[in-house]
Design brief:
Layout (H helix, E strand, L loop, with lengths): L5 H8 L9 H14 L2 E2 L13 H10 L6 H15 L2 E11 L4 E2 L5 E8 L2 E5 L12 E2 L4 E4 L2 E7 L5 E6 L6 E9 L3 H13 L7 E5 L5 E5 L2 E6 L2 E6 L6 H9 L3 H12 L13
Antiparallel strand pairs: 1-11, 2-3, 2-4, 2-10, 4-5, 5-6, 7-8, 8-9, 9-10, 11-12, 12-13, 13-14
């Protein structure tokens, strides 16, 4: 695919590691990605759909300095990992919905299985909540990232499930890796779903911090995760908004402006009190 420059992509991420199909580079590019590029669906409220054409995603993320969702960001990362020499397989996952205590009906989250030296790694740089953004070897049963413990198991149907916990709390479901090698038609359904779902109706953006913490803004609530603990608070006034948005969208003034507009024009209704995942 022409027009997608690896050096421009790495510059956007602030990744200075030498591109090579090695584990140190894979770790470096994943960390750089989550620190530089926010999860955000701010255009979806204007009727836009997630980009399926990777050139359009490249322009959005690299040239326009935007963020995106997993359908955009993980697929773009996967494209460049293949260019560098990794093996990449795209996998669609159902997302655990704590409020409903059920999996999402649609396998709407895209993650990567990255192959290197005979081992496969789970990679995800584009979930709105806390995810395993550092590569997780699929032949390992446990993976620590900061103070979060990620484990793998299979459900009663034999489908792989990723869980997240801490040293003091039992792992809880996160993703159900239900659809290896999803088709273009499946991605079209996901894009349509995102345009109609919460992604397309409310303020939603998240960012990982250098100390391993994570901040998510969802409607009128802010969720913070740090040291294995998640807290939430309501954004009750516009005076609180600049500091909150700076946690998530620093370095992206055009996104801050859009997020402020969405918050001030949001429907007057309470967002769910618990974190979405």
């Amino acid at each position: 695919m022409t027009g997608l420059a690896l050096d421009g992509y790495l510059r956007r991420l602030g990744c200075t590691a030498r591109p090579a199909p090695t584990l140190p580079f894979l770790k470096a590019v994943c960390r750089a990605h989550v620190l530089a590029v926010p999860f955000e669906t701010l255009d979806f409220t204007r009727g836009a759909r997630p980009g399926l054409d990777l050139y359009d995603v490249y322009v959005k993320v690299v040239e326009r300095g935007r963020g995106g969702c997993s359908l955009e960001l993980n697929r773009l990362l996967g494209h460049f990992l293949v260019r560098v020499g990794f093996g990449v397989r795209y996998v669609s996952a159902q997302v655990w919905q704590p409020d409903l205590r059920a999996w999402s009906e649609l396998a709407e989250h895209v993650v990567l299985h990255v192959s290197l030296d005979g081992r496969a790694y789970f990679v995800d740089v584009a979930h709105f909540g806390v995810t395993s953004h550092t590569p997780f070897a699929l032949d390992a049963s446990r993976h620590w990232q900061d103070d979060w413990l990620f484990t793998r198991s299979r459900d009663d149907d034999g489908v792989p499930v990723l869980l997240r916990g801490t040293q003091d709390t039992a792992p809880r479901p996160l993703f159900r890796l239900v659809l290896p090698s999803p088709t273009r038609e499946h991605h079209e359904r996901v894009a349509d779903h995102h345009a109609r779902s919460e992604f397309g109706r409310s303020l939603l953006c998240g960012r990982t911090h250098p100390d391993g913490g994570h901040t998510l803004v969802r409607g009128d609530r802010v969720f913070r995760s740090r040291d294995g603990v998640q807290t939430s608070a309501r954004i009750t006034s516009g005076s609180q908004l600049p500091a909150v948005l700076d946690e998530v969208l620093h370095g992206h003034p055009q996104l801050v402006q859009r997020a402020r507009f969405l918050w001030h024009t949001r429907p007057v209704r309470e967002s769910p009190p618990g974190p979405p995942g």
